[in-house]
């Protein structure tokens, strides 16, 4: 490698937005966790025998089994010669044929339209209609490479292509899922943080939204509000009243609503329910039902957890036709989302019906996954709240807990001494001593002076008990050490 | 839908970069072609019975059959229960097991690292090493969601996040593949067009590169040169000497080289051969072998044509370590490319070997595809050159012909009268009269005052003969009409 002077790209010439971008879910702690895995493999002695990757909502990585119906449909789509075998139920064959019939040349190796295969867009629209009780138009459904891709495509429309105080402003919850802050950095846009109320189940307070946008207005052009429901990393589930207030606020402030609803199947708390922004906005009637809204969904979460297929979609409503044409034009250069991911989305929104050969197995597998998640959500909430120096809102939905940790002054000083945020310092210590890999709250942003970490609730129940026991021991030792 | 005033997004507020972005391969003619298909289906009488989509390099859509080995491996990766069946050869099972063993939880439903699965990165590196005779480091290989995704990720690194004359400049060939101009528009970067020499097989002339960059310098910061070899849309294959000249030019001008080599398997002309930029740069030795280079490859072209899987990769060499760390950080927020697409890439770079149970069928299928493409490349070159008012360089590689059409003055006037470029006017007429869907040369940019269109060479031989006959009739009628 030559001297720095000879390189086109140095830290001085690299896109400064890339330099600034952070994505904590795969940040330094995760990189260290991967190193530790290699060290263990190489026989290096550690105080633990394996690394627990609780940093990322990666269901199958932590032992969740794929849903048979989904994988059987995918096997046939990939290798249609099997359509003649008697290894597969008839409804699986029918589904694979339906998808293949919509593929050019009957092959999932051909491109689909950029918005996805028509039959799948239709199935998504039917799913949304049945979920909400309001019609959904297939031509408003855009399939994508995971929800992230759809989110970034819609955010791109909202940019101003200007700098300084003319930058597009995106209201984002704090704590937030770092895809949003990463995209805002990459685009040179302006983040408008609004704080969720930890003391009231991470609810969303309109006065706080108003404070937040008022402070940001001199610095940007506020264009959109991001709401994540069920919450990541918070595990909260918004009430309908809360959603109504947010919609009314967005209307007053003329904001595009970006509703991240990828955890809509993951609801655990007694009395909690998922209400979509689409439904709530339709119920409110005019003028709210004419507001621009993008709702995002993923094949990676829910009961299926098929992260690796990169399936997702957006329903984007109330765009002006000429804006929609530009939206679809802008995604056309990406050609299309992977057809396998689209097929998984289809299986998720159009599941086997009672009487179908696959129905019983499907429903058993689905309910088993969701029941276990519910059990783990309760277990983790209860355990965190039983430990000194930790408080944790109920994991009402999604797949994460975001406990608050009360760190001794000495620990905060020790963190400062090594140039880390106190919660990074804590999470690094947790990783090195127990092998448990979490993400520091600072990666999601958090209220000044508070410290958190995010952990998934995904490990199998027995393993999770053990993890929590190890965690408790670590935590109490940590408190004692820095008392 | 409310009045324009109530919308957050109007043509006035929409990201102006999105407004400007064009991607002709899926532009207005293709939208019209899809309408025509619907009209035909609905029984509307047309002068043709079906639409021939010669606008896009979508192999399976035009009848190419998938390679059995690839699809068998994919079936097993998707549904590992089949690993116990005797329907699959042992080498297919071994390959699927190898991929699954590298997946977290042994499931392609889990995320891989953002750069892709390690075993596949290793297989890619081995393929490159064997191709070039120079070592390739797996940690420099980045798997991606099709080549497009990898190209955009590297281009992102090179942006300046500044406007006006401080924008990043990207040298792009004219004619070019419109992904580049679309990305440049989206990023608000500056295109630096250099013209390929149509009179000399679309070769690349260093004097032209020098003219091009000199003219652009006052308007941008030139950061990179894009070279597409084999050429899209030109069908040209660069000689090694030509590649050497480009590398030396890039060195003098301190440019990052973006080598789009997705058609590296598609070489047809007598005496033509594919030379990679990596190999040529290594052969040149110091200081050239220390230059920053990204080479892009895809699972969508070649003999496999698996577009719908969205598999691709980049080999990116000679980055400073701190720049590489930022590169990998910047793609981490995308989580990972689809595992199915990664698995297809693996099958493409690590094919069955002589003696393997799948070898004979694999090699027969592969050679059949490539032999037919070669036959069609010759057929189309010969036919275009036999028609009055058309000249076409030999389709030496890739999957397209880019014939020049000499249009009568009256046709040019008629186009102006309806506000179209002359070649759009021509391609629309071709579509309406024959059902043949091509892309006007203006979509790829072309030298002022020249007119072209791009057509793929993909339809099956017999169909292609018929298409070319219909084309010839149309063309001669068109000339007669506007004489």
Automatic annotation (TrEMBL), chains A, B:
Keywords: Aminotransferase, Pyridoxal phosphate, Transferase
Protein's recorded name: alanine transaminase
Needed co-factor(s): pyridoxal 5'-phosphate
Subunit note: Homodimer.
Organism name: Candidula unifasciata
Reactions catalysed according to its record: L-alanine + 2-oxoglutarate = pyruvate + L-glutamate
Alphabetical list of InterPro entries matching this protein: ALAT1/2-like (IPR045088), Aminotransferase_I/II_large (IPR004839), PyrdxlP-dep_Trfase (IPR015424), PyrdxlP-dep_Trfase_major (IPR015421), PyrdxlP-dep_Trfase_small (IPR015422)
Organism lineage string: Eukaryota, Metazoa, Spiralia, Lophotrochozoa, Mollusca
CDD domains in the cross-refs: AAT_like (cd00609)
Family, per entry: Belongs to the class-I pyridoxal-phosphate-dependent aminotransferase family. Alanine aminotransferase subfamily.
Top enzyme class: transferase
């Amino acid at each position: 490698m030559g001297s720095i002077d000879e390189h086109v790209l140095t830290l001085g010439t690299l896109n400064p937005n890339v330099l600034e971008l952070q994505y904590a879910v795969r940040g330094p702690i995760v990189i260290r966790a991967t190193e530790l895995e290699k060290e263990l493999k190489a026989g290096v002695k550690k105080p633990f025998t394996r690394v627990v990757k609780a940093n990322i909502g990666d269901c199958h990585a932590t032992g969740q089994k794929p849903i048979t119906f989904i994988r059987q449909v995918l096997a046939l789509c990939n290798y249609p010669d099997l359509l003649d075998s008697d290894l597969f139920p008839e409804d699986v064959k029918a589904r694979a044929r339906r998808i293949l019939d919509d593929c050019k040349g009957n092959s999932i190796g051909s491109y689909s339209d950029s918005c996805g295969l028509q039959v799948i867009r239709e199935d998504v629209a039917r799913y949304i209609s049945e979920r909400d009780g309001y019609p959904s138009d297939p031509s408003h459904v855009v399939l994508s490479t995971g929800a992230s891709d759809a989110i970034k495509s819609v955010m791109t429309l909202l940019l101003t292509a200007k700098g300084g105080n003319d930058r597009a402003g995106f209201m984002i919850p704090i704590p937030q899922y770092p895809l949003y802050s990463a995209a805002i950095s990459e685009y040179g846009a302006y983040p408008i943080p609004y704080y969720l109320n930890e003391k009231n189940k991470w609810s969303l307070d309109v006065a706080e939204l108003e404070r937040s946008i008022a402070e940001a207005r001199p610095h940007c052009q506020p264009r959109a509000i991001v709401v994540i429901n069920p919450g990541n990393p918070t595990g909260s589930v918004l009430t309908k009243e809360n959603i109504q207030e947010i919609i009314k606020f967005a209307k007053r402030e003329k904001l595009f609503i970006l509703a991240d609803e990828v955890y809509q199947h993951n609801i655990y708390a007694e009395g909690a329910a998922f209400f979509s922004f689409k439904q709530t906005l339709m119920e409110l009637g005019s003028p709210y039902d004419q507001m621009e809204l993008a709702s995002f969904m993923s094949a990676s979460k829910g009961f299926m957890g098929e992260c690796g297929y990169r399936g997702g979609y957006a329903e984007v409503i109330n765009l002006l036709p000429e804006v929609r044409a530009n939206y679809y034009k802008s995604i056309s250069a990406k050609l299309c989302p992977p057809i396998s991911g689209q097929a998984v989305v289809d299986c998720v929104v159009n599941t086997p019906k009672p009487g179908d050969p696959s129905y019983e197995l499907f429903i058993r597998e689905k309910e088993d996954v969701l029941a276990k998640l519910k059990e783990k959500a309760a277990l983790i909430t209860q355990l965190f709240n039983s430990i000194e120096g930790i408080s944790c809102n109920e994991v009402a939905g999604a797949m994460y807990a975001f406990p608050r940790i009360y760190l001794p002054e000495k620990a905060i000083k020790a963190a400062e001494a090594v140039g880390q945020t106190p919660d990074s310092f804590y999470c690094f210590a947790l990783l090195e001593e127990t092998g448990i890999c979490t993400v520091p709250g600072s990666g999601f942003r958090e209220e000044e002076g508070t410290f958190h970490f995010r952990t998934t609730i995904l490990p199998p129940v027995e393993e999770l008990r053990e993890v929590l026991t190890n965690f408790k021991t670590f935590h109490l030792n940590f408190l004692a050490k820095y008392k």
